[in-house]
UniProtKB/TrEMBL annotation:
Statement: the UniProt record of this protein carries the keyword Disulfide bond: yes
Keyword tags: Disulfide bond, Leucine-rich repeat, Membrane, Repeat, Signal, Transmembrane, Transmembrane helix
Ig-like domain span: 279-367
Keyword Transmembrane: yes
Protein name: Adhesion molecule with Ig like domain 3
Signal peptide: 1-33
Bilayer-crossing regions: 381-401
SMART domains: IG, LRR_TYP
Pfam families from the UniProt entry: I-set (PF07679), LRR_1 (PF00560), LRR_8 (PF13855)
Taxonomic path: Eukaryota, Metazoa, Chordata, Craniata, Vertebrata
């Protein structure tokens, strides 16, 4: 991306030097192609940002892969607007006044990967708008006036990864048109802050797992009902970012009345009559975590899973049988303590947390590597000092200590129970794991876009 260069350029530029550089770049770039007078052309980027444009510059060069038309007054894009730019990959048009796109706007630009039409005045996303953009990965349409997204809009856009449609007036979305085999990479669909009240929840549930995980629909005007609650209940259970990061912004209206708005992720008493069907009886496997320690060290292996209930029972599966379990115990919160790890204790430890009430299991794997402390650096002076101290202690011990009266060090507390398998321990947790810190995926990315646009300097006059 050439934006940093733009910034550098701005610092260097002043008056005539500016003009000279511009000329130099344009001449060096493509001798036969001219840079529109209101734009900056550098490397493979053309920026016509905030140039007061009402329509596209008449003669756009064909070389750029990056075209920035943001912060102008464009209202409409005609057919084959970018026909002469077959290499275009990123097209920035945020903060214009575009109301509609004609047919075939993007013909001959099938190399487009990022299209930013955010903060415009689009009203309907029509099925013809983006046809042919089969390489398109990111589509930004947030902060428009979109009330409808036509079914079929995303047909053929098989490379889509992220679609941003927040802050519009959308009441309905064609979820059925998105499927695993048609959109295998779609991992972000932001429909938050729209006007959706009732969705076809069966269609939402049928969405590919990746899409559900990246679907943001908070701050709409959803009507409270059991079908709706069941969807969010499952997402909450799986600890999806969309729920965790925006828990306070999930509202629904009782009987559709906006005056009785309910924060339903916190206030779930209303839904106690709903039968939430149990999720597929497949344990959720949480990511493997790594623990590297030295022999003799104490290790704590936590059993934090996506289950958040207060009544969980835990069990650990050791990497091999025959581990000396007098040195291992488990806290009520499922954390396993290895008091003095041996090299032999290395391996995968598997914790299963079971929520008996809900009939749910989740597992956590910890890859423990115990290293020999061979690499501990000792210099000779230090070693000598240590030897002297040890000798002194031994002498004092010999002189003054009577043999140990082993009254208080009987049996270790029975905090464990030995099993025949290498599966041990089971008890109940009474603490809840700490919730993670808030991460605002959807908005972080949007803000990045805004910032990026803000960074680009005014073009030359
Ligand atoms: C359209 O794109 C092709 C390559 O994909 C290119 O050869 C052709 O010149 C382009 N058309 C125009 C009018 O630039
Ligand atoms: C947008 O433009 C297309 C093609 O010109 C036209 O068919 C459609 O009716 C327009 N839509 C709106 C909402 O004006
Ligand atoms: C919620 O959506 C409305 C528009 O529907 C918007 O005005 C408001 O700023 C949004 N609230 C938040 C917290 O994003
Ligand atoms: C909930 O509302 C949806 C429409 O959004 C409807 O299709 C469904 O039947 C309702 N479910 C229940 C349990 O009322
Ligand atoms: C739940 O069911 C009970 C008994 O059937 C009923 O009295 C109550 O109003 C119901 N609550 C809701 C929120 O529907
Ligand atoms: C959950 O764990 C319990 C006890 O370990 C086991 O009996 C049950 O089969 C497990 N269920 C699933 C779905 O793995
Ligand atoms: C386990 O460790 C304890 C303490 O180090 C030791 O006394 C005991 O003999 C060990 N048991 C086995 C089976 O190795
Ligand atoms: C579990 O409890 C132990 C002892 O109270 C504590 O040291 C540890 O940090 C706790 N683990 C988690 C994940 O809360
Ligand atoms: C590892 O375990 C095996 C058998 O359990 C034992 O023979 C061997 O000495 C152990 N090695 C270490 C370093 O503890
Ligand atoms: C566990 O960690 C060790 C050492 O870091 C590594 O070699 C091994 O591949 C890891 N095992 C798994 C299953 O990730």
């Amino acid at each position: 991306m050439g934006f940093k260069n733009f910034k550098d350029l701005r610092i260097m530029t002043s008056g005539r030097f500016h003009a000279f550089l511009l000329l130099l770049f344009c001449v060096l770039q493509r001798s036969e192609q001219t840079c529109p007078s209101v734009c900056l052309c550098i490397s493979d980027t053309v920026s016509c940002s905030a140039a007061g444009l009402n329509r596209l510059p008449r003669s756009l060069p064909s070389f750029p892969t990056n075209l920035d038309l943001s912060h102008n007054h464009l209202t409409w894009l005609g057919p084959k607007s970018f026909y002469v730019m077959p290499r275009l990959e990123k097209l920035w048009m945020a903060h214009n006044e575009i109301r509609n796109l004609s047919h075939n706007v993007f013909s001959n630009v099938s190399s487009l990967r990022v299209l930013d039409l955010s903060s415009n005045k689009l009203q309907i996303v029509e099925r013809h708008h983006f046809q042919g953009l089969w390489r398109l990965e990111e589509l930004r349409l947030f902060n428009n006036k979109i009330s409808q997204v036509e079914a079929g809009t995303f047909i053929g856009l098989s490379s889509l990864k992220k679609v941003y449609l927040s802050f519009n007036h959308i009441t309905d979305f064609p979820f059925f048109s998105i499927q695993d085999h048609t959109h295998p990479f779609l991992a972000m669909l932001d429909l938050s802050s729209n006007r959706m009240s009732s969705l076809l929840w069966e269609d939402v549930k049928a969405l590919p797992r990746l899409v559900q995980q990246g679907l943001y629909i908070h701050n709409n005007s959803l009507i409270c009902n059991c079908s709706m609650y069941s969807v969010f209940w499952h997402w909450n259970l799986r600890n999806y970012d969309s729920i965790r990061d925006f828990a306070d912004e999930h509202f629904c209206n009782v009987n559709g009345d906006p005056r009785t708005s309910l924060q339903f992720l916190h206030n779930n008493r209303f839904f106690k009559n709903c039968t939430v069907e149990k999720p597929v009886m497949q344990p959720v496997v949480d990511l493997l975590s790594d623990v590297v320690i030295y022999e003799g060290d104490r290790a704590h292996l936590d059993c934090l899973t996506s289950l958040t209930s207060k009544d969980l029972s835990f069990s650990w599966l050791y990497p091999r049988s025959g581990i000396n379990d007098t040195l291992i115990s488990m806290f009520p919160n499922g954390t396993l303590e290895i008091q003095a790890a041996m090299v032999n204790d290395s391996g995968i430890y598997l914790c299963t947390a079971v929520d008996v009430k809900q009939g749910l299991n989740a597992t956590r794997e910890v890859n423990v590597t115990v290293l020999l402390p061979a690499a501990v650096p000792f210099n000779t002076g230090y070693t000598t000092l240590l030897c002297c101290s040890v000798t002194l202690v031994l002498i004092f011990a010999y002189l003054f200590l009577t043999p140990c009266q082993c009254g208080f060090c009987k049996n270790p507390p029975a905090a464990y129970s030995q099993g025949t398998l290498s599966c041990i321990f089971s008890c109940f947790r009474r603490q809840q794991p700490n919730g993670g810190t808030l991460r605002h995926v959807a908005f972080t990315e949007q803000l990045m876009g805004e910032e990026r646009a803000g960074q680009i300097p005014q073009s030359s006059q």
